[in-house]
UniProtKB/TrEMBL annotation:
One of its GO terms (molecular function) is peroxidase activity. InterPro entries: Glutathione_peroxidase, GPX_AS, Thioredoxin-like_sf, Thioredoxin_domain. The lineage of its organism: Bacteria, Bacillati, Bacillota, Bacilli, Bacillales. Belongs to the glutathione peroxidase family. It comes from Neobacillus mesonae. One of its GO terms (biological process) is cellular response to oxidative stress. This is Glutathione peroxidase.
Length: 158
């Protein structure tokens, strides 16, 4: 059976990052957007990361412009925006597609493992996936789910 550790992703600088580097950690993987009504969730995600990173939590952000083009064209603008406006220090990666023919393989895997209410397709920015320490998808959360509301599930896995 595959795990998230079988995948590699691109950093903002364009180099490859193996998710195996996060093996043994609890992960929150989220597709993000800088110009979305849910963008303030960066603050809650950052708070969870700061509060539990010493216990093994990592938050991994994947900018995506597939939903009303709500992401900057330039990844440097995205990362600067996240740091300046929300104090984001968790890893952000290169901009990706999460749906369709060009969907990133990681997100294809995530959506196959945990379907949404109506389908596997990601409906909007800030869909969150909680990954256990074995690299398996434990939960999927809707874009409307505030990061604070997933804290209890995070604690169960830590």
């Amino acid at each position: 059976m595959s795990t998230v550790y079988d995948f590699s992703v691109k950093t903002p600088e364009g180099s490859k990052k193996d998710l195996k580097d996060y093996e043994g950690k609890v992960l929150i993987i989220v597709n993000t957007a800088s110009k979305c009504g849910f963008t303030p969730q960066f603050k809650g995600l950052q708070q969870l990361y700061e509060q539990y990173k010493e216990q093994g939590l990592m938050v991994l952000g994947f900018p995506c412009a597939q939903f009303n083009n709500q992401e900057f064209e330039n990844i440097e603008e995205t990362t600067e925006f996240c740091q300046v406006n929300y104090g984001v220090t968790f890893p952000m990666f290169a901009k990706i597609d999460v749906n369709g023919r060009d969907a990133d393989p990681l997100f294809k895997f995530l959506t196959e493992q945990k379907k949404g209410i109506l389908s596997s397709k990601i409906k909007w920015n800030f869909t969150k996936f909680l990954i256990d320490r074995n690299g398996q998808v434990a939960e999927r959360y809707a874009p409307t789910t505030d990061p604070k509301k997933i804290e209890a599930d995070v604690l169960k896995l830590l």
